[in-house]
Design goal:
This protein is mostly beta strands. The protein has no helices and 28 strands. The protein has three domains: 95 residues, Sandwich (Immunoglobulin-like), CATH 2.60.40.3880; 109 residues, Immunoglobulin-like; 104 residues, Immunoglobulins (Immunoglobulin-like, Sandwich), CATH 2.60.40.10. The strands form six sheets. Strands 20, 23, 24, 26, 27 and 28 form a six-stranded mixed sheet that branches. A five-stranded mixed sheet has the order 2-9-8-4-5, with no helix packed on it.
């Protein structure tokens, strides 16, 4: 069963997926290393054989990265990242390095140069059994589809492996991180702590479509592994958060109106004098017939010639219960062609009467 949408405006729902947008080239931004990901996380030596570490680099600005890996004993290995994929503003590059079973555990250093700037990134390689192994269970987001800016609740549990099961870890800091659909880098959105059972809850606003995950780092305040447990990352979940659509346009008027028995008196008047308009306003009924329209505004208009532009004249009148109206226009210019107009209302089209000429009194 599909999930309901949260906070859906205008009685509408977000789409099941968002249409692809035209993406600007990744070269449009200044060259920079935006993000580094190591997998597996954590990296733990395996007595049974080598461990392959996959290093993903997110680079903006279209530059090619150069990478060097230095192990705890000072041995350096040049990496050759290969271009993997491109999104709107970033390019993903991937390198691999194999650590043998008897490789050194401890602090490893990755150096990445992008367009003359070198970034240094520490990561830990753990010996087998060196740390208590942690993992996330039950990480989820509800709802999975919302309008942009709506709240989403993220829940899960952090546990330490004990035999064939897990034991909840209390009081551990958990980060909620987000990866936009059009990017490879991850951004921290919130931080919380686990409760006594190792459970945690986040409520965050989903501003864009993208992936979310929970992280528990094995780093201390100095940026290097120094805890009793290994770090962990949850599986990611995709939350669709398309932009809120604009409000619907007002419905097109469907019913007609008409003005009958229009007259204007006197037909000649001195410049700046007064004239009186009379007539009856009708509105088409739902049944298709016509009914007299009460309590609606009528205004007057004039133009110099038969093909000129109609201009509103100050003043208005309200129709009576019978639909009849009497509108007096003062300070009128003459000679002119005159008519009256009903401006319409919700579901009812506007209408103007036929015109009559008022001449200048000699």
């Amino acid at each position: 069963m599909s999930e309901p949408y949260d906070s859906a405006p205008h009685n509408s729902e977000p789409p099941e997926s968002e249409p692809p947008e035209s993406e600007p080239p990744a070269e449009d931004r200044s060259p920079a290393l935006e993000n580094v990901e190591f997998a597996p996380y954590p990296v733990i030596l395996d007595p049974a054989g080598p461990v392959t570490v996959v290093i993903d680099l997110a680079v903006s600005g279209g530059a090619e990265p150069y990478a060097l890996l230095r192990d705890p004993v000072g041995k350096e290995t040049e990496l050759r990242p290969e271009r993997e994929a491109t999104k709107a503003e970033e390019v993903s590059w991937r390198a691999r390095h194999e650590i043998p079973a008897d490789g050194p555990a401890g602090r490893w250093l990755l150096l990445v140069r992008v367009a003359g700037t070198v970034d240094e990134i520490d990561f830990a390689v753990l010996g087998a059994g060196e740390r208590d192994r942690t993992l996330f269970t039950g990480f989820d987001a509800r709802p999975r589809r919302v309008w942009a800016g709506s709240p989403v609740t993220f829940t899960g549990r952090l546990g330490v492996v004990r035999g064939e099961g897990t034991e909840g870890l209390a009081g551990r800091p958990i980060s909620l991180v987000f990866q936009r659909q059009d990017a490879f880098s991850w951004e921290e959105a919130a931080v919380t702590e686990t409760d006594r059972a190792g459970a945690f809850v986040f409520v965050a606003e989903a501003e864009d479509t993208g992936h979310w995950r929970a992280q528990f780092t094995d780093e201390d305040d100095d940026g290097f592994a120094a805890k009793a447990e290994s770090g962990a990352r949850s599986a990611s979940v995709l939350v669709l958060a398309p932009p809120v659509p604009p409000p619907p346009a007002p419905p097109e008027p469907t019913r007609k109106s008409k003005i009958t028995s229009y007259s204007v008196r006197p037909r000649t008047v001195g410049q700046g004098g007064s004239i009186t308009h009379k007539g009856t306003l009708w509105i088409q009924a739902s049944s298709g017939g016509w009914r007299r329209a009460a309590n609606l505004k009528i205004g007057a208009q004039n133009r110099k010639t038969k093909s000129g532009t109609w201009r509103d004249h100050p003043g208005s009148a309200t129709t009576r219960d019978s639909g009849d109206f009497t509108l007096t226009s003062s300070g009128v210019p003459v000679p002119r062609f005159w008519r009256v107009k009903f401006g319409g209302r919700s579901g009812v089209k506007w209408i103007a009467s036929g015109y009559q000429e008022v001449g200048r009194q000699s």
